[in-house]
Amino acid sequence: MSLHNLSSAEITQGISKGSFSASEVLQSSLDRIEATDKHVNAFTAKHLDRAMQKAQSIDTLRASGASLPPLAGVPFAVKNLFDVEAQVTLAGSIVNRHHAPAKQDAFLIQQMAAAGAVLVGSLNMDEFAYGFTTENTHYGPCRNPHDTTRISGGSSGGSGTAVAAYQVPLTLGSDTNGSIRVPASLCGVWGLKPTFGRLSRRGTFPFVNSIDHLGGFANSLDGLATMYDAMQSPDALDPGCHVKKIDPVLPSLQQGTQGLRIGVLNGFFEDNASPQAREVVATAANALGVHAQVEWPDATLGRIAAFIITASEGGALHLDNLRHRIEEMEPLSVDRFMSGALQPAAWYIKAQRFRRIYRDKVNALFENWDVLLAPATPVSAPVIGTDWLEIQGQTLPSRAAMGLLTQPISFAGCPVVAAPMWPSLNDGLPLGIQIISAPWREDLAFRVAKQLETLGVCHLKKVEL
Amino acid sequence: MTQEQALEFIQANASALGLPTDKVRLERVASHFIRTEAMAQLLDQVEYPADLEIAEIYCPKQIAP
Predict the structure, then answer these.
(1) pLDDT at res. A367
(2) Tell me, what's the pLDDT at A354?
(3) Residues of B in contact with A305 (CB under 8 A)
(4) For A197, how many CA atoms within 13 A lie in the half-sphere containing its CB?
(5) Of A414, A286, A418, whose CA–CA distance to A355 is shortest?
(6) Cβ contacts (< 8 Å) between A354 and chain B: which residues?
(7) Tens of pLDDT, residues A321-361
(8) What's residue A174's pLDDT?
(9) Any domain includes B52
(10) What is the ipTM of this complex?
(11) Pairwise CA distance, residues B34 & A336, whole Å
(12) N or C: which end of chain B has fewer CB within 10 A?
């Protein structure tokens, strides 16, 4: 029986009913990875022993008649900046190979395991998360399952690809400036970047402390919601985790969009979008009966401030690597790291002061709106190795431009569900939208996403590999 | 900022921080630095009240009684 293309809900229901076992689900996932990963290069490690033990423990639990946890037997994989017990946390680098193995799993892996999910492996990414393409020189580029000559997006490229290729139904990633939303868009899968401070980052290799978020990818919206609810928890040991309680989204997922004030972002988000990117937003807006156009405040400045903070904190974090191991670093990002390390403190401090002004302006916007729609990427996946893009008459550096439309949103800390969509004239390539809500209101973004899924507007597609 | 000014700044600061200072690399870094400097100028045009603090992440830890 082929089980690799099931959603997490179909997996847990099937195991619960006895239609198949968790061990069979795991084997199907491993077979799929074996058959397809040579084409897409999503996995950098497989954790077979622990996966088999976990699957067997779920089967034993089921045999005992006990009730099963919400993700019982669901295979998942993580971007390789997540600590996995007894494994070295690479964060896409070769520099980190010399580090000691992790003593315990990252906090979110522990949460997933407690919910019954089965960790099968670790995934490719841009080195130290500084990129939007996962053209990793050390481990090879991660390839887009819909066209393997094209990028998967990044920096969580392996996480987007593994879901799109139906290797696993759920993956975890990180998003500082768009690193979940970009690969979700380019690979045509569901993605979630929660509110900044919602999910604990403990046990992951950092990039930019003051902007880093963790989140996930899924082949179904219900799976994304279940995973998100399972991962939520206060964590006093992550100074960036601000929650005191859990706000589950599953109870309100089916509530529909009636009464919600929904708008479409114009200005910056139109000016930097290809015709295909504008088409998918228009399609979603039409399906929802939405006509209002909304201007996001200071999008250009928000992006600039995020860029400066990213470069500065990232450069400072890797100062020792730049001093002593610069030849081992990723050629595509090492000069940006060094430039960031040399930025004057005044630039960084001004950007952090601007962030307060920006937060207040964005929060004021959400006094009038509940959910806003925008493209997730300016274009669909470029061919691997593309240096420059033409967008609305502008020639832009391809690798930075992929995050143009995500960066202003995450800088304000707003939660975003990235929804998979398929422009009509795009050679079968996906291009997703961002469903954006006010900080701490993930539930509203999920409700709109559910409506779009129900209407058949947002969905995954099968891939030929 | 000209390429020459950027190179001079980068050379001095790279030396101060103990970073590599080979010319070919510094020229590549300078091109990134100049782009960022142009962005930083745009942020300079915003009015910042004197009492506007940086966005927070630090939070003092409460000592258990």
Answers:
(1) 95
(2) 96
(3) 43
(4) 19
(5) A414
(6) 43, 46, 48
(7) 999 999 999 999 999 999 999 999 999 999 999 999 999 99
(8) 98
(9) no
(10) 0.91
(11) 11
(12) C
Percentage of chain A with pLDDT > 70? 100
Q: Among partner residues A340, A350, A355, which is closest to B44 by beta-carbon distance? A: A350
Chain B residues at the A interface, defined by Cβ less than 8 Å, are 9-10, 13-14, 17-20, 25, 28-30, 32-33, 36, 39-40, 42-44, 46, 48, 52-55, 57-59
Range A8-454 classified under CATH 3.90.1300.10: yes
Does B19 reside within a domain?
yes
d(CA A110, CA A105): 6
The position carrying tokens 């969905």 is: A459
Mean pLDDT, all residues of chain A: 97
Helix then strand then coil, % of chain B, to nearest 5: 55, 0, 45
Q: Does A151 reach chain B within 8 Å, measured CB to CB?
A: no
Task: Identify the weakest region by mean pLDDT among A35-39, A230-234, A251-255, A394-398.
Answer: A394-398
Instruction: Judge whether A296 and A358 are in contact, CB under 8 Å.
Output: no
Whether residues B55 and A210 touch (CB distance < 8 A) is answered with yes
Structural domain boundaries enclosing B7: 3-44
What residues of chain A lie within 8 A of the CB of B55, using their CB?
Answer: 210, 352-353, 355-356, 359
User: What is the per-residue pLDDT for B55?
Assistant: 83
The residue-averaged pLDDT of A221-250 equals: 95
**Cβ neighbours of residue A220 under 8 Å, at least 6 residues apart?**
A7, A8, A9, A169, A190, A460
User: Which DSSP helix (H) or strand (E) runs through B6?
Assistant: helix B3-17
Contact (CB<8Å) B25/A304: no
Name the residue among B19, B33, B57 with its Cβ closest to that of A210. Answer: B57
CB-CB contact of A64 with A109 (8 Å): no
- Look at residue B22 and tell me if it is in a domain: yes
Q: What local confidence, expressed as pLDDT, does residue B58 receive?
A: 61
Active-site annotation holds for A179: yes
Write out chain A residues lying below 8 Å of B25, CB-based: 335, 338
Residue A313: predicted pLDDT = 97
User: What angle do helix axes A275-288 and A442-454 make, rounded to 10 degrees?
Assistant: 90
Minimum Cα–Cα distance from B47: chain A residue: A354
pLDDT at B53: 87
Inform me whether the pLDDT recorded for A403 exceeds 80.
yes
Among the listed residues A218, A177, A216, the one whose alpha carbon sits nearest the alpha carbon of residue A194: A216
Q: pLDDT tens digits for A13-43?
A: 999 999 999 999 999 999 999 999 999 999 9
Q: Does some domain include residue B61?
A: no
